[in-house]
Backbone:
């Protein structure tokens, strides 16, 4: 199955040139779709290639959802491009399942090199960020008992706090953990119980815990 590149971005002369550059230097078909035109549900499960999502803060929640869906595929990849150098977005991209991150300061050769690496199954993040994410994930799961839903004891406790209407900051203070750790926990929990947001998670908790 031949790979392709799908560029989700604002329609502009610069992005048209970017698509032409990527096609010419990868020998892959590169198509453009605007944020409004793109329909994730229309992305075939058999799609093979990389989806490049141009950074726009208002669309990040859709990108995170897309990352979750694509992570289930063996032949599809996603990465964010043209993002400001933001440590929080950078780390969240990895935590949410993106395969790479490219800032607005990265050169075209760097973007090209990263795309080629991702299509080989590699992650395009710094070793330090990947190591930090791995260690955090291991700490979150170490020594925890899992229930029938795959939830750890700490995850069940966080859900109970969430059902009581506590904010992420309040949960972090109660558990003596960082705000980013709370966010990582909740993202993992949403995937396990198949909900989209904290309201749905709270409702799920009242019915199941």
Residues:
């Amino acid at each position: 199955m031949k790979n392709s590149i799908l560029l989700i971005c604002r329609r502009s002369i610069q992005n048209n040139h970017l698509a032409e550059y990527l096609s010419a230097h990868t020998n892959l078909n590169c198509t453009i779709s605007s944020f409004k035109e793109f329909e994730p549900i229309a992305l075939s499960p058999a799609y093979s290639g990389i989806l490049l999502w141009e950074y726009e803060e208002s669309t990040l929640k859709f990108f995170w959802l897309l990352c979750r869906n694509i992570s289930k595929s063996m032949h599809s990849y996603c990465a964010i491009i043209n993002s400001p150098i933001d440590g929080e977005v950078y780390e969240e991209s990895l935590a949410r399942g993106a395969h790479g991150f490219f800032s607005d300061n990265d050169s075209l050769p760097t973007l090209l090199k990263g795309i080629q690496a991702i299509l080989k199954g590699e992650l395009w993040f710094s070793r330090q960020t990947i190591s930090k994410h791995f260690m955090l994930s291991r700490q979150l799961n170490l020594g925890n008992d899992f229930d029938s839903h795959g939830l750890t004891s700490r995850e069940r406790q966080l859900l109970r706090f969430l059902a009581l209407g506590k904010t992420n900051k309040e949960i972090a203070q109660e558990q003596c953990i960082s705000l980013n750790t709370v966010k990582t926990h909740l993202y993992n929990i949403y995937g396990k119980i198949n909900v989209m947001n904290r309201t749905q998670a709270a409702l799920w908790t009242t019915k199941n815990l």
Notes: The chain has a mean pLDDT of 84. The CA atoms of residues 17 and 184 lie 37 Å apart.
